[in-house]
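Subgroup meeting minutes
Present: P.N., E.W., G.H.
Scribe: E.W.

1. P.N. recapped why we're keeping a running log of single-chain structure predictions: easier to compare across weeks, and new members can see raw inputs and outputs side by side.
2. G.H. added today's entry (248 aa).
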Amino acid sequence: MTSTLKIGLVGYGKMGKAIETVAKKQGIAIGKIISSKDNNEGKGIRAMTKNDADVLLDFTVPGAVLTNIKAAAECGLNIVVGTTGCHDNLDKAQSIVEKNDTGLFYASNFSIGMNIMFRLVQQAVRFSNGFPEYDVYVHEFHHTRKKDSPSGSAYSLANIIINESAGKTRIETERLTDSIDPETLHVSSTRAGSIIGTHIVGFDSDFDSIEIKHSAKNRMGFVQGALRAAEWLKGKTGVYTMEDLLRV
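Output recorded in log:
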């Protein structure tokens, strides 16, 4: 089935190439493709017009996210961002988008399965508040080429826990050199091999352990979610997340 959507790609790594392949199969037009080396300080995006794409999809590096959002907004282009780092600048990003009357869709993880996990963890933490003997933690695994840690999804899980937990008040992502206090949520990371992405939220007690786990088998779940987000964002203004797309 042919879509009326035309997308532009910012970042042409493994995710960008996977999105291009799937989009073509689904009849989604590909506008401009801008590699990171051609987009210094948003230069590649600023050369674009609305004729080049309805929506941009950004899968680049954390340090470029805010610059890319600003460049897209100034060109009147909506943008879907799947790069870790946007969550640290959401207030600034929202201000930029509102000022230029454009649209931004941000997700730390576009996988539908991962977003189901977010909701499961939310409910599990609420339930575990009545059982303080269970201590919660987050651990994530990714491939050796990933340039940041913890992952954006791990941060999302951690923030859900902090918001819902009766006992956890702060997040620790650094290496520990002493015992951890009960109010601290430890978020740890492993980088090895070619792991696409695995996230675990555990609840541990003296008696047993409970784990909620999501393992990505390939990038297709992220690709499908990102394309759905782009289709959904077309013509909209404001800032949105997967909560809006999946609202039931």
